[in-house]
Amino acid sequence: MQRIDDDIKATVKKIIQGSEKRKRRIAKGSASEFDKTAAGVIEAALNQSCHNIDGRAAREQLQRQIYKSVVYSVPYESIYGVICGRRKFYDYRNEFITAVAEGLGMLPDGSRTQT
């Protein structure tokens, strides 16, 4: 599993947490290019997460729970109906955050370390 630097991870989380406001700006037509790019990258990263879960409904449910966890800073213990264990949930969550960072070009070659 890849580990990203803490400052990059914190920035990406803040970008994801701004998603709901960003979606409203896009809907109103007042979005910046960054808003549009970030929304697309976040959506693509979320749709690609949990790729190894069979069943579309189960995968989509877990994707919504991961999104909720990041956007509203909700810990695993406060999310009901999670279909996987705590460690796996946070693995999926970190994969999502890393995919957003990669999609936004925030990961230079040397910033990732293997754990």
Report on the structure:
By secondary structure, this protein is mostly helical. The protein contains five helices and two strands; from the N terminus they run βαααααβ. The chain has a two-stranded antiparallel ribbon. The C terminus is likely disordered.
N- to C-terminal separation?
A: 6 Å
Class by helix and strand content?
mainly alpha
Total number of beta strands: 2
Principal-axis shape equals globular
Helix content: 55-70%
Reported for the largest beta sheet, the result is: 2 strands, antiparallel
Low-pLDDT parts are: 111-115
What percent of residues are in strands? 5-15%
- What are the secondary-structure elements, in order, as H or E? EHHHHHE
Task: State mean pLDDT (0 to 100 scale).
Answer: 90
Spatial strand arrangement across the major sheet: 1-2
Number of helices, where a helix is a run of at least 4 consecutive DSSP H or I residues: 5
Rounded to an integer in angstroms, the radius of gyration calculated over CA atoms is 14 Å
Key descriptive features of the protein:
mainly alpha, globular, two-stranded antiparallel sheet, 115 residues
Summarize this structure briefly.
By secondary structure, the protein is mainly alpha-helical. The protein is 63% helix and 5% strand. The N and C termini lie close together (6 Å).
